[in-house]
TrEMBL record:
It comes from Dyadobacter endophyticus. Residues 90-189 form the M23ase beta-sheet core domain. Pfam families: Peptidase_M23. The lineage of its organism: Bacteria, Pseudomonadati, Bacteroidota, Cytophagia, Cytophagales. CDD domains: M23_peptidase (cd12797). This is M23ase beta-sheet core domain-containing protein. It comes from the Bacteria. PANTHER family: MUREIN HYDROLASE ACTIVATOR ENVC (PTHR21666:SF270), PEPTIDASE-RELATED (PTHR21666).
Length: 224
């Protein structure tokens, strides 16, 4: 991972994925946020109100954060707790929480690797995965919780230029039934996955997956 990490770190600039002009506020969905230990956020409307009205001060900010977090919010979602022996709670990407319909832009030149509608409660919903290459090093970026119409007109191998409109943030329930946000993840090796890739892992697998999925801040470069 060191080679890719250093390559991304040294890259002069990436296009902003979200360009709505709002300032950023870091959100905490770990047990360190005492609110989460007393609230039932299993209803998406309640969860969305909590994020946008309380944490983001009436939607005055974009929310950001999550890489490597051990999140307690997944306890309400069977998608992450179905395996009772290895429930998943370590978040492998960065989330940007902002309005449904917000346009999203490609951070660098790419081709479409794959895409899918992961249509399960708590899943990614509409998802796009892009393939990139910098100085001969291949890697991938994943965009989850999109609008369904973001998948229209896509095909594997389609060329996407840096700064080109890519997709839009989806509303619930079509986005996997989450408050509107984009899950952005860097992946060194997709293996056999197409249109999907783990975005949350079990604590015992943390080191393996964080090595496979470098910090998205290397591309986002957002100060909160």
């Amino acid at each position: 991972m060191a080679e890719l990490t250093e390559l991304l770190r040294q890259h002069p600039a990436f296009s902003a994925i979200v360009q709505n002009g709002k300032p950023y506020r870091k959100l905490d969905f770990t047990a360190g946020n005492a609110d989460l230990l007393t609230r039932d956020l299993s209803e998406t409307r309640d969860f969305s109100d909590y994020v946008f009205q309380e944490l983001l001060a009436g939607n005055a900010y974009n929310g950001i954060g999550g890489y490597g977090e051990n999140r307690v919010i997944y306890r309400h979602r069977k998608h992450f707790t179905a395996d009772s022996e290895k429930p998943r709670s370590i978040h492998l990407g960065v989330d940007i929480w902002t309005d449904a319909g917000t346009p999203l832009y490609a951070p660098l030149d790419a081709t479409v690797h794959s895409f899918a509608f992961n249509n399960h409660y708590g899943d990614y919903g509409p998802t796009i995965i892009l393939a990139h290459e910098l100085d001969g090093i291949p890697f991938f970026t994943l965009y989850g919780h999109l609008s369904l119409n973001s998948l229209e007109g896509l095909f594997e191998g389609k060329t996407i230029k840096a700064g080109e409109h890519l997709a839009a943030i989806g509303p619930y329930p079509e986005n996997g039934d989450w408050p509107p946000h984009i899950h952005f993840q860097i992946i060194r090796n997709m293996g056999d996955y197409k249109g999907d890739f783990p975005g949350v892992c079990h604590a015992a697998d943390r080191d393996y997956y964080l090595d496979l999925c470098p910090d998205p801040a290397l591309i986002l470069r957002i100060s909160d």
